[in-house]
Design a protein that fits this description.
It contains twelve helices and twelve strands. It has 347 residues and is α/β, with parallel strands linked by helices.
């Protein structure tokens, strides 16, 4: 990897005091604190979001394979950030991490603790936060943003720091985000319904999935909240106007019958396999419709077993034992088995 000129901030302790913040002949000046960790020195400060938009850049790999290391920009994500900021309730407290470039001519005054730099489009390389910075550019609102500016990094050091930031941080699991949406008062009506149904399957002693649910994280051998919600959203029309209690009662009977079918092959533990679970949920509307035709409104385990039991009997164990990665493909296999062996005398 080619090297680049480093841009270490120059300490200027004996020059005339500049204005604490603002513009000085095309330069920005802001109160900052100098921190040193190991061999690296960086500054913590807050800057106006529009100044960040004016002075920051990225160098994605596709644009410059030799020197670039950033990922491609997701414009939709940036627009979502802009809309969040402009909503008036948006707050983004996490710091943007930058590396000062030679064009910045970074200078730090220890006395008044001010950091100044040239305001050019290539003053800073973004190490973390490119979508936030682009969102700031798109937003109509102006706000102060916490910033960390590294000084004196080579291109190799910038790439290594980029790797460290993006591999050592662990995002919050989606399961936990779903679980706390009620506390944050951001649930949709559908999400609230799904959460209540999930909680019933986790809580109720007669649940066919009792002790097989994982609400906060992905756990092997258990159904996560993300998997459960994704499966039920695919058949959301089947639950229009239904309460969580009724959805639980009907699905509980259905899944109990599914477990019995899997058990005939010695595969009942596969109920928690994401592909198997989603395929069985996809099959539910057609099975429930047939149950309702025979026994209007009586969605019991016995009535579900009348329909789905023969389907499992017709399927080969090998088809079930290796669900694969495609719920749609497994669902088609179930549908095919549900039609085989049909005759007028069987209705």
């Amino acid at each position: 990897m080619a090297t680049k000129p480093t841009a270490r901030a120059v300490s200027v302790d004996d020059a005339p005091d500049p204005a604490e913040e603002g513009d000085l002949a095309g330069r920005g000046s802001y109160t900052a604190s100098l921190l040193i960790q190991g061999k690296h020195r960086f500054y913590t400060l807050s800057m106006p979001s529009d100044v960040l938009g004016e002075t920051c850049m990225v160098e994605p790999r596709y644009a410059d394979p030799a020197e670039g290391f950033q990922r491609a920009l997701d414009e939709k994500r940036a627009r979502d950030i802009a809309a969040y900021i402009d909503s008036g309730a948006g707050t983004i407290p996490t710091s943007i991490v930058l590396s000062a470039q030679p064009e910045a001519d970074l200078q730090y005054r220890r006395g008044p603790r001010t950091l100044s730099f040239n305001k050019t489009p290539r003053s800073f390389l973004i190490l973390d936060g490119q979508h936030r910075v682009y969102g700031f550019r798109l937003a109509t609102s102006r706000l102060r943003v916490p910033v960390v500016i590294y000084s004196g990094l080579s291109r190799t050091e910038e790439a290594r720091l980029f790797m460290d930031i993006n591999t050592k941080q662990r995002p919050v699991p989606n399961e936990l985000i779903l679980d706390i949406k009620r506390l944050a008062d951001t649930e949709s009506s559908q999400e609230a319904l799904l959460r209540d149904v999930f909680d019933a399957f986790q809580r109720e002693g007669d649940s066919p999935l009792f002790n097989l649910m994982s609400p906060f994280e992905r756990t092997k051998g258990k159904i996560s909240r993300v998997t459960f919600n994704s499966a039920l959203k695919s058949i959301a029309d089947a639950f229009n106007g239904a309460t969580a209690e009724y959805v639980y009662d009907v699905l509980s009977s259905y899944l109990q019958a599914c477990l019995s079918g899997l058990r005939t092959h010695g595969l009942d533990s596969l109920i928690t396999n994401p592909t198997m679970f989603r395929a069985l949920i996809m099959l539910f509307p057609s099975i429930a419709e047939r149950v309702n035709d025979r026994h209007p409104g009586e969605f019991t385990v016995l009535h579900f077993d009348e329909i789905i039991g023969p389907i499992f009997q017709r399927m080969k164990r090998s088809e079930l034992a290796n669900p694969g990665k495609s719920p749609a493909a497994l669902h088609e296999a179930f549908k095919k088995a549900s039609k085989s062996g049909f005759s007028i005398g069987s209705v």
